Amino acid sequence: MKMSAETVLEQAMPVLEMVDVSVKRSGRLILSNINLRILKGEFVGLVGPNGSGKSTLLLSILDLLNIQTGSIKILGHNPQSKRLHGKIGWVSQAASNLPRDIKITVQELVQLGTVTGKNMLKLYDKSRAKLVEEAIRMVDLQAVRDVDVSRLSGGQRQRAVIARALASDAEFIILDEPLVGIDRDSRNSLLQLLDNLCHDEGKTIFMVSHDLAAMRQTAHRMIFLEETIRYDGDTEHFPDLSGLAFLRGIEHVHGGTHTHSNHGKGEEQ
Ligand SMILES: Nc1ncnc2c1ncn2[C@@H]1O[C@H](COP(=O)(O)OP(=O)(O)OP(=O)(O)O)[C@@H](O)[C@H]1O
Ligand SMILES: [Mg+2]
Q1: Smallest CA separation from ligand 1 atom 30, residue
Q2: 42 near 220, Cβ under 8 Å?
Q3: Which atom of ligand 1 is least distant from the CA of 49?
Q4: Largest CA distance in the chain
């Protein structure tokens, strides 16, 4: 395939580059001094306690939150650039909590992932149909493709929203807690799928999860965030619990001391 000069340039750029980023929400500093660079084909796991700013970090990358200081570049562009349309796939936290009153089949939901500014007015074409097929197959939902999403189990719905992001054919896929509510088998096949996307298709994945075991199994690189980045390195060298306590500057890690409960969570906390 012939690449445009712009595409060639983008390929040479880090997929994500954040320099000295800080973010305030309601006047409170949530993120400070974030310096982060993610390269094409990396699978990066983002972990940290509840309220440590993981979703905030993703929302600022997606240009859904303003940053206070610093800069963010995606494929060399500012987050608000139209050039990024269709290049970022996003599965938001609790994305599978779709409104119950919306009547939409799995196939239709996944199809929405292929809508970009460019093709919005075009009829549903063959290449898009192929992406939808492929995405549904990847998450193993062929059997329920014509079923209304409100009738699916939590895990199936989660896979459907992931398929929507996959169908976009985006090169940078950002997932916020995609494993919540998924049974072990689906979880493993999903992780395998994400891993294949990196290795075989050169996609770049940035994923938040509380499931440390799952992250260790798949991510090449781990980031531990608590207001700022406290660990960024190989998954292999990611610290154990006492090492994490050290990173957090505390002597003991108390279980279940979360002071706020913003979202439903599963697995290791
Ligand atoms: N809309 C908002 N306005 C003001 N503060 C917010 C808002 N949303 C979140 N916060 C605060 O920002 C901080 C970081 O929240 P964020 O959702 O980024 O954390 P998180 O690491 O994703 O947590 P979790 O693991 O629970 O998803 C928390 O202290 C939270 O209370
Ligand atoms: Mg979050």
Answers
A1: 51
A2: yes
A3: 25
A4: 60
Q: Report which bound ligand comes closest to the CA of 262.
A: 1
pLDDT at 138 exceeding the cut of 90:
no
Tokens 């075009």 found at: 122
Ligand 1 pocket at CB < 6 A? 25-26, 30, 48, 50-56, 93, 260, 262-263
Evaluate whether 34 touches 22 at the Cβ level (below 8 Å).
yes
Give me 28's structure tokens.
Answer: 């409170």
Ligand closest to CA 56:
1
pTM: 0.84
User: Which residue from 23, 24, 54, 60 has its CB within 8 A of the most atoms of ligand 1, so it is best to mutate?
Assistant: 54
Residue 155 · residue 181 · CB < 8 Å: yes
Does residue 268 register a pLDDT over 50?
Answer: no
Residue 171 has pLDDT above 50, yes or no: yes
Residue 257: pLDDT over 60: no
User: Using CA atoms, how far apart are residues 16 and 229, in angstroms rounded to an integer?
Assistant: 15
**4-8, 21-25, 220-224: which range is least confident on average?**
4-8
Least confident of 2-11, 103-112, 148-157, 232-241: 2-11
- What is the DSSP code (8-state) at residue 221? E
Compute the distance from residue 232 Cα to the ligand 1 centre, in Å: 21
Backbone φ, ψ for residue 84 (5° rounding): -85, -5
Ligand 1 centroid, distance to 50 Cα (angstroms):
8
Q: With left for phi above 0 and alpha for psi between -120 and 50, is residue 51 left, alpha or beta?
A: left
